[in-house]
Amino acid sequence: MSRLTAMFERLRAERRTGLLAYVTAGYPSPADTVPIVQALIEGGADAVELGIPFSDPLADGATIQRANQTALAHGVSLADVLGMVRNLRAAGVTAPLLVMGYVNPLESYGLERFGRDAAAAGLDGMICVDLPPEEADPYEAVCRAHTLDLIFLVAPTSTDERLAEVARRASGFIYCVSVTGTTGARSGVAADLAAFIARVRAQSVLPLAVGFGVSTAEHVARIGQLCEAAVIGSAIIDTIERAKPGEEAENVRAYVEVVTGRQRV
Fold first, then answer.
1. Which of 31, 129, 196, 222 is the most buried (most CB within 10 A)?
2. pLDDT tens readout for residues 115-128
3. Which is catalytic among the residues 9, 46, 56, 60?
4. pLDDT by residue (tens digit) across 169-214?
5. Number of domains the chain contains
């Protein structure tokens, strides 16, 4: 059983909403990533997505774009990200770890090389934001060969035919984009989210996670009424950005404790 499957089974048994936390690898510096990921998990995150730094992250808003630019200025590459995964496993982290990024860095690295190195590092899967399911055959083959989950994104604008195609190919879970637009914290959960989730449910039995615009405990609670997990990214980057140097990990731990309900404000 994969770590992701085991995580969702545990969430179901515990009757609680999972939290998938995103952080850009190498932000604010390469040395900060391992302690920040450890702090996210200690604070209550059930899994962590490590963003692969990329120069043109079209789906991401200004917050994550800035984090990408900072990580790139530090020279962080996909090989470095996989090294961070190895270090996290060596440090005893057992939670699911994913990479989230775009096609270009993966193609540049080489898909077969990526699959081999990712599996050896202890990665559980990947989310490729701009990978159309119709062009995913090589990615699926690599993921199957190396026991990695391939997670696709769907949006409120996805047709039923596209949802069915994603459901046929996806593994681990399906990432449901809650809004039309880029990432970034928002004031509330989209009013039509329930109808969108129902459309995805009609096509797949996989767990569903909702991201884009999620930032508060209230958002997580609302999402938990509809699906298995919430994804928070920009609000975590904002928390890191506001922290004093050396206090980034402590601050993200406290933030995650609040949004998961472990700590009351």
1. 196
2. 999 999 999 999 99
3. 60
4. 999 999 999 865 445 444 456 668 999 999 999 999 999 999 988 9
5. 1
Whole-model pTM: value is 0.93
Structural domain contains residue 264 = no
Separation in Å, CA 251 to CA 42, 88, 238, 241, 248 = 12, 19, 10, 10, 5
Q: Which of 9, 32, 46, 49 is catalytic?
A: 49
Residues 222 and 8 sit within 8 Å (Cβ to Cβ): no
Average pLDDT over residues 49-75: 92
60 is catalytic: yes
Catalytic residue check, 107: no
Select from 105, 87, 102, 151 the least CA-distant residue to 124: 151
Q: Is residue 265 part of a domain?
A: no
CA angle 46, 14, 86 (to 5 degrees): 25
The pLDDT score that the predictor gives to residue 73 is 98
